[in-house]
Amino acid sequence: MSDEPGPVRRPAAGPAPGAGPPLSLTLAAIMREVGAHSGAVYLLRPEERILEMAVMAGMPRAFAAPWERVGVSAPIPVAEAVRERRLVWVSGEQDMARRFPRIAVVLPYPFSLAAMPVATSDTVYGALFVTWPGARPAELSGDDRERLTSACDRLALLLERATAEERPPGPEPDLLALPTSGTVGTLGSLGSLEAARMVSRLPYGLMSLDLHGRIGFANAAAAELLGRSAGDLLGTLPWVSVPWLNDPAYEERYRDALISQRVTTFVALRPPDEWISFRMYPSTTGLSVRVARIRAVTELRQEAERTGAGPARLVTISQVLNLAGALTEAVGVEDVVQLVADEVVPAVGSQALAVLGSRGGRLHVLGHRGYPDPRAVRCLDGLPLGTSTPGAQALDSGVPAFFGSVEHLRRQYPERHRAHEASDGFSAWAYLPLIASGRPVGTCVLSYAEPRCFPADERAVLTSLGGLIAQALQRAQLYDAKKQLAHGLQDALLPHSLAPPPGVEAAARYLPATQGMEIGGDFYDLVPARPMAAAVIGDVQGHNVTAAALMGQIRTGVRAYTTVGQPPQEVMRSTNRLLIDLGAELFASCLYLRLDPARGRAEMARAGHPPPLLRRPNGRVRVLELAGGPLLGIDSGATYPTTEVFLPPGSVLALYTDGLVESPGVDIEHAVARLGALLAEVGDLPLDHLADQLVRHSVAARERVDDVALLLLRASGDP
After folding, report:
1. Residue 321: CB partners within 8 Å, gap ≥ 6?
2. Counting C-beta atoms within 10 Å of the first and last residue's C-beta, which end of the chain has fewer, N or C?
3. For 53, how many CA atoms within 13 A lie in the half-sphere containing its CB?
4. Residue 5 per-residue DSSP state
5. pLDDT value of position 148
6. Phi/psi class of residue 561: alpha, beta or left (left: φ > 0; alpha: ψ in -120 to 50)?
7. Residues whose CB is less than 8 angstroms from the CB of residue 622 and which lie 6 or more positions away in sequence, other chains included
8. Bridge partner residues of 652 (DSSP)
9. CB count, 10 Å around CB of 350?
10. Is the pLDDT of residue 152 over 60?
11. Phi, psi angle pair for 591, to nearest 5°
12. In what order do the strands lie in the sheet with 504-511?
C-alpha cells in the first residue's frame, strides 16, 4: 500500500494552517468520504476528564444537547471510544437500545453510529462520531473503517501540531448543510419563476423545512390548509406557529425523518373535524413536506396502518429525566419494582408489570403489579431457565420479545398459553431483557389489556427503557445482597437470646446506623456464668464490617474471661490488652458488671462508656457516675477500678451506647437527663415494652446517625 493518500482520501487530511476552521473542515471531509449524514468532534479537557463538543455537522446541535459535555466515564459511544482507544460501532436502533439505553430513549430512531478516539500514540485529544440513516448495512465495511481510522489519525496530528504551536482549537460554528458534490447548477431566473408557478398550481400543499424545522417556503395550498398566510409561516416552526400542531408528537416525526432519513408520515386533526396528512421527504439539507386533506376517518386509519403514523415517542424527554432521577434513588429491588409500576407502566400504556430474575438456574419473581389474579405471575416462580416460556428465554438470551395478540403468543408458546393464559387476562405483552454490564439481570414483562402493534420505534423505546431499569435493578440487587450479608453478620455476632440468672429480668434492643452498610460495632451480652452472671455493653469505633468483626472478637473475649472467673476489673484489663494485641487501631468503650441477685448487688467496671441509669423502686432515677479507666485499646497498662451498686427488688438498670442519646446540636447531658425522665415515667412497664418506649422516644435513635444498643436489667427479687 502506498504511503501517499489517494485522491479520494486527500480532503480528509485537514486544512492547511490558517485556511479555515480546522475541525469543521476536517469533519465535513470525513463525512463526505464515508457517506455519513451527521457527525461531531469532541475535544478532551484533561484537567476535568470531560469531552466537550467543539463542532457538529449535518444536524441541529439541539438533537445532541444532552451530550454536549460528557465525562470520559459516561456510558455513551464517544466516551467509550476514548476509554478503550478503539472504534465503537453501533449498528442500529436495537443495538443502541441494548448497549446505550440513555441515548436510545432520547433518540429512538433507526440510525447507525461510529465513534473513534482522536489520539496519537501517547496523547488523546478527543473523539468524533458520525451517523448514517437506518438503511445502512449492519456491519461497518473495512474500507469505511480504514477511512475513519486514517482520518482520525490525521486529525490527531493536526491537533498535536496546533497544541505544540500554542494555538489549541476551540469550539467552531456548526455545519448544518454540507455542500454536495456534483450539484447541478442553479436555474436561471426564468426557470425559477416557472418552477414557482408550477408549485403554486399543485392541488396539495408543499412546504420546505430547514434542518432546524423552520419553514423556508410554503405554497398557497399549504398556507390555506394550515390556516395561516404564507408570510406568517415563513421562518417559524410549524408546531409553534400553527396552534393545532402544538403537540410534541408532531415534532418527533420531524426528528425521526431527519435522523433516519426515511419518508415519514403523520396526520393531525384541524379543528373542528378536518384531518390533514403530512408526508415528509428528508435530505441532508432539510425536508420537503407534502400537505393534503384526508376526506374520511377510514382513510386516516388506513394511512396510519400503512405508514405507522402516530406518535413515535412513548415517553417524553422530561419523563425520561424524571425516571432516570427516580431510579438513582431506588435502593432495594422492591423500590425499583414500585418505581417502574408508578412511572413506566402509565407512560407506555400497559396495565400490569412483572419483574423476573434468576437464582440457581431458575426463574424468580422479583415483584409484580396490576395482575387481577397474582397466580398468573406466581406460577412462573421456580421454573427452570430452560423452560419454553417467553420470560425465561428473554432472560437467558438477552433478546426482547413482543406479542401483539393472544394468537401471536399461542403460536410461539402453546404450552405457556394453556397453562397460564386463563388466569392472565391480558391481550398483548412485551418481554424486555434487563441487561446491565453486558449481561442479563432480569426480564421486565409489560402486559396490555388490548391487542397492540409494536412498531420498530416503539420496540426501541421499550428496549432502551429496559436498559435504564436494568442498571437500577443491578444496583438494587447488589444493595439487597450487601444488606442481607450485613444483617446476617450482625445477627451472628449478637446474642440470639438473653438468659438472665434467677432474680433478674432482661431485655435488649439493637439498631444499626442508617448510613453505610447498616452494620455496626455496638454490642451487648448477658453471660450466665457461675456463681454470678455478668452483663456487658460496649461500642467499637465506627459502623462498618471492620467494627463489627472487632466487636465479635471483644464479645468473645469478655465471655471467655468471665467464664474463667476473672473479677470485673481483670476482665476489663484483659479485654484492653486483647484489643491492643489485635492491632486494629480502633478504640472501644465498655461497661461490664457482675450481678449478685441474692445480695441485691452489682459490681461494675467502666472504660470510657456513657454512665448507666438506675431507676429505684420508688420511681426516682439517677445517673451512676462510676469510677473507670480510658477507652479500651489505648493504654496497655490501664487499670479499671470497680464500683458496687445496690439493686433492690423492683429497680431497673439501663445500659446504653451513645447512639441512644447523642445527636448533632444536642447537649449529651441534657439528652441523658431526658432519657432518665422518660425512664422514671414509664419504668413500671414490662421490660420489653419499656425498651421499645425508650428507643421510640429517642431523637438520636430516630435519626440513626450512629448505632444504638440498649440493655435493660430489672431486679425481680424472685429466687
Report:
1. none
2. N
3. 20
4. P
5. 93
6. alpha
7. 613, 614, 616, 676
8. 615, 714
9. 22
10. yes
11. -130, 120
12. 504-511, 708-715, 652-656, 613-615, 621-623
- Coil, strand or helix at 506: strand
The torsion of the CA quartet 134, 135, 136, 137, rounded to 10 degrees, works out to 110
Residue-level pLDDT at 167: 80
Q: Concatenated DSSP letters for 514-551?
A: SSTTS--SEEEEEE--SSS-EEEEEEESSSSHHHHHHH
Neighbours of 37 (CB within 10 A): 22
Contacts 24+ apart (CB under 8 A), 153-158: 153/120, 154/12, 154/13, 154/14, 154/26, 155/14, 155/23, 155/26, 155/30, 155/41, 155/118, 155/125, 155/128, 156/118, 156/119, 156/120, 156/123, 156/125, 157/120, 158/14, 158/22, 158/26
Could you count the other beta carbons within 10 Å of the beta carbon of residue 387? 16
Contact, 472 vs 325, CB < 8 A? no
Mean pLDDT of 209-235: 88
In whole angstroms, give the CA distance from residue 548 to residue 540.
Answer: 8
Q: Is 279 within 8 Å of 265 (Cβ atoms)?
A: yes
Q: Is the peptide bond prior to 531 cis by the omega test (within 30 degrees of 0)?
A: yes
The mean per-residue pLDDT over the stretch 510-529 comes to 74
Query: Which grid cell is 401?
Result: 420479545
C-alpha cell at 584: 486494629
Distances in whole angstroms, Cα of residue 593 to Cα of each of 488, 530, 634, 700: 28, 14, 21, 26
- Residue 136 one-letter amino acid: R
Amino acid letter, 284: T
Angle between helix 456-493 and 545-563 (nearest 10) = 20
Is beta strand 601-607 parallel, antiparallel or unpaired with respect to 588-596? antiparallel
Report how far apart, in Å, the C-alpha atoms of 648 and of each of 501, 504, 618, 643 are: 15, 11, 11, 16
pTM over 0.90: no
Helix, strand, or coil (residue 182): coil
Cell of residue 654, nine digits: 439501663
DSSP state of 632: B
DSSP H or E segment with residue 484: helix 456-493
Sheet holding 362-369, edge to edge: 362-369, 352-359, 439-448, 428-436, 401-403
The whole-number pLDDT of residue 700 equals 65
For 32-81, the DSSP string reads: HHHT-SEEEEEEEETTTTEEEEEEEESS-GGGGGGGSEEETTSSSHHHHH
Q: Residue 694 — very low, low, confident or very high, per pLDDT cuts 50/70/90?
A: very high
Report the C-alpha gap between 263 and 287 in whole angstroms: 10
Q: Answer left, alpha or beta for residue 488, where phi above 0 means left and psi between -120 and 50 means alpha.
A: alpha
Q: Which of 505, 499, 500 is nearest to 715 (CA)?
A: 505
Three-state secondary structure readout of 395-410: HHHCCCEEECCHHHHH
* Residue 217 cell numbers, joined: 417556503
Pairing outcome for strands 601-607 and 628-629: parallel
Residue 618 DSSP code: T
Task: State the cell numbers at 483.
Answer: 444488606
